């Protein structure tokens, strides 16, 4: 099929550029991006050209910018360019040069789309890029999401050139007499994609001359399976997942009922930083007594009696001072609202899990709200003797990773309330109490900063890390 017809058919098949689309084309000056711009221009789209100059190759980078600028002038197209201090940015943010360049250019592209009236960003990934991505991810170890190749569409980013292989792109450029710039790094084996291109794909093409087409069809099938799998993961999450503030709970019984519990749980836990082997150990712990602990870089998981409990590793926060009943308090785990009201005989007080009501006359302001500490104690409501908070938490069967996140309300050096668990006899509301101070717990007002519990690739636009090219 003629490359222009192939591109147009691909765009229609995947709904990439619905009217009145006005795509901005990311152009490095290399053969792929020049061919993409030429094809979209021939197809009648009102395109603009955007070139990011990272200044990494000295005079070559300057020559690339000049080339794309001249190309835009020759084709009478809008031209945008931006120079980036890539290396300082990479050092400051502790990123590789490639990742830093990707972040910088896509942030700039987003600004251009928002300000320049363009509807899409078109990038020049082709079928061979997608094949390289699949093989790279396979070699590194991956799940379904690493084998669906480069998607035709991801948000506002579209990739019409996926209709063609690298060989077809090169043949088109030569047939049309198109100029382009050759990146000197393409001839080296410094980057993984070059090693695949030079040493892996050629022998595979000897096995199958239609390698890219075969892998593209495989990627399409895997993407469909991935969507089915994502729905299954969503069903399981609906059945077993709950959340309170930043703490996540997964009921064990629904997990144990799943024949393929390992891959399902690994997918649920991946956003929390747990890898596949850790998930295998967690699944193994389901058939053993409670108490198993597992940590990722950011989360702490405990296998409790009937559930898996996940909470962030960061500390719960610093103590807070409450100067008056008019104040509110906010932590990463909860928000606390304080109010006063006259004592009435028909008042119904909340349980200690949701809040508490204390006698105003017994409280000494300011109050202190802080995480509990070893040695803390209180006289629990209804009891004569005192009890250590540590013993109370054991008695209440608080999971090990949630114990550091338990807070206490302190008045005059004495604990009036172990938040969510028990109030103190000393501060209780009595028949002679005139004024009540009510404390109400709620989730953090801004919502917890927490990962999604479902995989990213739940729809046609789900993505994966790919070899980004212009």
Which helices and strands appear, and what pairs or packs with what?
Elements: H1 3-14, E1 23-26, H2 31-42, E2 48-53, H3 59-74, E3 79-83, H4 86-93, H5 97-116, E4 120-122, H6 127-140, E5 153-154, E6 157-158, H7 166-176, H8 192-207, H9 211-240, E7 241-244, E8 247-251, H10 252-256, H11 261-269, H12 276-285, E9 293-295, E10 299-303, E11 307-312, E12 320-322, E13 328-330, E14 335-342, E15 355-359, E16 367-371, E17 377-378, E18 387-388, H13 389-395, E19 407-411, E20 414-418, E21 422-423, E22 435-442
Helix pairs in contact: 2-7, 4-5, 6-8, 6-9, 9-11, 11-12
Q: Brief description of this entry?
A:
This protein has 470 residues and is an alpha+beta fold. 36% of the residues lie in helices and 20% in strands.
Question: Could you please describe the fold and organization of this structure?
Answer:
With 470 residues, the chain is α+β, with helices and mostly antiparallel strands. It folds into 3 domains: 3-222, Rossmann fold, CATH 3.40.50.620; 245-312, Uridine Diphospho-n-acetylenolpyruvylglucosamine Reductase, domain 3 (2-Layer Sandwich), CATH 3.30.465; 320-442, Phenylalanyl-trna Synthetase, Chain B, domain 3 (Phenylalanyl-tRNA Synthetase, Chain B, domain 3). The chain contains 13 helices and 22 strands. It has helices at 3-14, 31-42, 59-74, 86-93, 97-116, 127-140, 166-176, 192-207, 211-240, 252-256, 261-269, 276-285, 389-395, and strands spanning 23-26, 48-53, 79-83, 120-122, 153-154, 157-158, 241-244, 247-251, 293-295, 299-303, 307-312, 320-322, 328-330, 335-342, 355-359, 367-371, 377-378, 387-388, 407-411, 414-418, 422-423, 435-442. A 6-stranded mixed beta sheet has the order 3-2-1-4-6-5, sandwiched between helices. A hairpin with a 2-residue loop joins strand 5 and strand 6 (157-158). Helix 2 packs across helix 7 (166-176) and helix 4 crosses helix 5 (97-116).
């Amino acid at each position: 099929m003629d490359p222009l017809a192939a591109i147009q058919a691909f765009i229609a098949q995947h709904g990439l550029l619905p009217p009145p689309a006005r795509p901005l084309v990311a152009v490095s000056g290399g053969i792929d991006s020049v061919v993409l711009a030429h094809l979209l221009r021939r197809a009648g789209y009102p395109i603009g050209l955007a070139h990011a100059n990272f200044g990494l190759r000295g005079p070559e980078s300057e020559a690339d910018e000049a080339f794309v600028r001249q190309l835009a002038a020759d084709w009478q197209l809008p031209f945008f360019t931006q120079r980036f201090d890539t290396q300082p940015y990479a050092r400051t943010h502790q990123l590789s040069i490639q990742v830093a360049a990707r972040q910088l250019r896509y942030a700039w592209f987003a600004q251009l789309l928002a300000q320049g009236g363009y509807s899409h960003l078109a990038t020049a990934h082709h079928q061979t890029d997608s094949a390289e991505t699949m093989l790279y991810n396979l070699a590194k170890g991956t799940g379904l999401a690493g084998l669906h190749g480069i998607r035709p569409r991801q948000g506002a980013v579209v990739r019409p050139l996926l209709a063609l292989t690298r060989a077809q792109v090169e043949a088109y450029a030569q047939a049309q007499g198109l100029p382009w710039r050759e990146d000197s790094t393409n001839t080296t084996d410094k980057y993984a994609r070059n090693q695949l291109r030079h040493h892996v794909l050629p022998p595979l093409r000897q096995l199958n001359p239609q390698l890219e087409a075969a892998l593209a069809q495989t990627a399409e099938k895997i993407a469909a399976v991935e969507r089915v799998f994502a729905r299954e993961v969503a069903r399981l999450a609906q059945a077993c997942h709950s959340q309170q503030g930043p703490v996540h709970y997964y009921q064990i019984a629904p997990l144990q009922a799943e024949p393929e519990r390992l891959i399902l749980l690994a997918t649920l836990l991946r956003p929390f930083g747990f890898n596949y082997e850790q998930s295998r150990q967690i699944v193994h712990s389901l058939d053993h007594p409670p108490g198993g602990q597992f940590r990722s870089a950011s989360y702490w998981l405990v296998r409790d009696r009937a559930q898996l409990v996940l909470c962030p590793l960061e500390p719960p926060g610093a103590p807070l001072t409450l100067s008056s009943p008019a104040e509110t308090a906010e932590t990463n785990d909860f928000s606390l609202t304080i109010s006063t009201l006259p004592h009435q005989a028909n008042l119904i007080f909340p349980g200690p899990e949701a809040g508490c009501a204390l006698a105003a006359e017994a409280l000494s302001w300011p109050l202190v709200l802080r995480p509990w500490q070893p040695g803390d104690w209180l006289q629990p409501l209804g009891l004569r003797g005192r009890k250590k908070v540590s013993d109370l938490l054991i008695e209440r069967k608080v999971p090990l990773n949630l114990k550091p996140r338990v807070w206490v309300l302190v008045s005059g050096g004495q604990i009036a309330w172990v938040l969510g668990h028990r109030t103190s006899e000393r501060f209780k509301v009595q028949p002679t109490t005139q004024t009540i101070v009510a404390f109400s717990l709620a989730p953090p007002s801004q919502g917890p900063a927490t990962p999604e519990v479902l995989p990213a690739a739940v729809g046609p636009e789900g993505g994966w890390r790919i070899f980004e090219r212009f």
